[in-house]
Amino acid sequence: MKKISLVASTTFEQIVPVCKISCIDVRKKSNYTLLHFANSINLNIHLFGERLFEFPPAIQPISIVYSEEQEGVLSEFLDNLIARGYLLEYCIKWVDICEELKEELLNRNLVVEGDLYHIIFAPNPSLVQHIDYIEKELVERENNINAVPELSVLDLGCGSSRDLVYLLKSRSKVQWKGYGIDMLEFCLARSRVLSIRANVTQHLSLYYLEISKDGTFQELERTKDIENSKLYKKLLFDMETEDKKEAFCQSQPCKNFFETCANKLPKTYNLIINIRFINKAFLPSINPMLSPGGFVFISTFAIGSDLPTFSKPKSNHCVDVGELYCFFSVLGYKIVLDVIETIEDGRPVNTFIAQKPFTLSNN
Ligand SMILES: C[S@@+](CC[C@H](N)C(=O)[O-])C[C@H]1O[C@@H](n2cnc3c(N)ncnc32)[C@H](O)[C@@H]1O
């Protein structure tokens, strides 16, 4: 780990390599708002555990930005990161930079002013790789009259909604409207807070439902008063700026930040995604829920004689090699991608993209 101090004499050549690494900026929000690296998130050091899902994968190098008065608490934080396998590239004490350097970095979008959220977590890489193609196909056929066409995406087992937030925030030619379903309230709490941070909460609807063995959405009894839970308060507390809290209260009243009624879900979607979770009993329900020409994107654990074995998830939550291909080919879907990939811990996943036919005769 290289230690650096940003001071008035720091030069452009010294700072550019630093700007390119994803960065966790643990300075006070007010300092971050004044100026920060474009490739960074602002983190309250005490919320490290709760916000790990927003970090890049541990195999990717990261940097830390801190201010002088934080030196005392920094070493425990760094030890924690190293213990979790993170590769720390730079540890940067932000003291000052001169005005000319600031202007040059601002012009090149290497630093930014304001309380902005930048995505440094990694959405599903195949989704990132193929989303241009999916959007192009969908928009061409949609006859959409809006300047920025609106498309809908349903995420089955959305977890913290990183893939949804990526779609809602980062796509400029399309406005996605996201629907996330998960059976864990704390996942939905994280999803909601992430969407507020990323300023996309008005485009995200969350549903507390179980995708059940009979292939339907099962409504669930709420078990936790999640809005009053320690976790949620901690996550909200981190959003120091009042305007964000206010926007949150206006867009989705705190008392009802996810839906529990399956009937409120739209009947069809342009894209259905299912990442690192599958309930195979639900596969037949996907077809009627996709609009003509819509896409299914599945990236989930796979079993096959040539593939490495693993203990979790159990085999009934995995697909056999070729199973998705067979299932959707029979329905007349155009298979766009069907590959076996390996995730960071070595487990194999089948990443599969297919497009529903446009005409009923192909169905
Ligand atoms: C491994 S996580 C993946 C989360 C997310 N898709 C991602 O890739 O980051 C699996 C998610 O599926 C949810 N889940 C598991 N079984 C479910 C079910 N039967 N109904 C709804 N959600 C479920 C879990 O709560 C968890 O959030």
Give an account of the 3D structure:
- With 363 residues, the protein is of the alpha/beta class.
- The protein contains eleven helices and 16 strands.
- Strands 8, 9, 10, 11, 12, 13, 14, 15 and 16 form a nine-stranded mixed beta sheet that branches. The chain has a five-stranded parallel beta sheet with strand order 1-6-5-2-4, with helices on both faces. The protein has a two-stranded antiparallel sheet with strand order 3-7.
- Helix 7 (185-197) runs parallel beside helix 8 (230-237).
- The mean pLDDT is 90.
- The structure holds S-adenosylmethionine.
- Residues 157-159, 162, 181-184, 187, 210-211, 275-277, 279 line the site of S-adenosylmethionine.
Summarize the structure in short.
InterPro entries: SAM-dependent_MTases_sf (IPR029063). With 363 residues, the chain is an alpha/beta fold. Helices cover 30% and strands 26% of the residues.
List the helices and strands and how they pair.
Layout: E1 2-6, H1 12-19, E2 22-25, H2 29-34, E3 36-37, E4 40-42, E5 62-66, H3 71-83, E6 88-94, H4 99-107, E7 111-112, H5 125-142, E8 150-156, H6 162-170, E9 175-182, H7 185-197, E10 204-211, E11 217-219, H8 230-237, H9 242-251, E12 269-275, H10 283-289, E13 290-303, E14 319-320, H11 323-330, E15 334-342, E16 348-355
Bound molecules: S-adenosylmethionine.
Residues 157-159, 162, 181-184, 187, 210-211, 275-277, 279 line the site of S-adenosylmethionine.
